[in-house]
Design brief:
Largest sheet: 6 strands, mixed
Radius of gyration: 15 Å
Oligomer: single chain
Strand content: 35-45%
Shape: globular
Strand order of the largest sheet: 2-1-6-5-4-3
Helix content: 25-40%
Distance between the termini: 48 Å
Number of helices: 5
């Protein structure tokens, strides 16, 4: 099997994603193509959407993140570039304080990122729904309505 070296964009976008997702939603959104797709396969079990299509839907969902996931930081990042050079996987550990309620939060994530023309075109995030307090994602949905 021939492997293409990872795109420099892939590494840059992985770093920027981890740095911006919980601190600057607008700068984070600028990392994505206009037609980007974001998927959370396990989110429906907690009342969240499984798929967001396009920058408007992604913005509407992520706008409250910095209010709810305060101090979200990622550690122990491990990267796995895909064979095509445009797709890669991240494994990270996240910690935050959930608001309201000052609830300690810890989660292990697996993130799949596909890039196109220097931006994220497809992002999929896997996480354990049992580690998220019940009601977390329902409150996001209510705020978006």
């Amino acid at each position: 099997m021939d492997r293409t070296p990872p795109s420099p964009d892939l590494d840059r976008l992985m770093d920027a994603h981890l740095a911006l997702i919980a601190t600057d939603v607008e700068r984070w959104l600028a990392l994505f193509t206009e037609d980007a797709v974001v998927e959370f396969p396990y989110a429906p079990s907690l009342g969240g959407p499984a798929r967001l299509e396009g920058s408007s839907a992604i913005r509407a969902y992520f706008a409250p993140i910095t209010q709810h996931f305060q101090g979200l930081t990622f550690t122990n990042a491990r990267r796995y570039p895909g064979a095509d050079g445009q797709t890669g996987w991240l494994e990270v550990h996240g910690t935050a304080t959930l608001q309201p309620g000052n609830i300690p939060y810890e989660q292990d994530y697996v993130m799949r990122m596909q890039v196109r023309d220097g931006r994220i075109a497809h992002y999929r995030e896997y996480w354990n729904p049992l580690a998220a307090p019940r009601g977390t994602f329902e409150s996001f949905t209510r705020e978006q309505a």
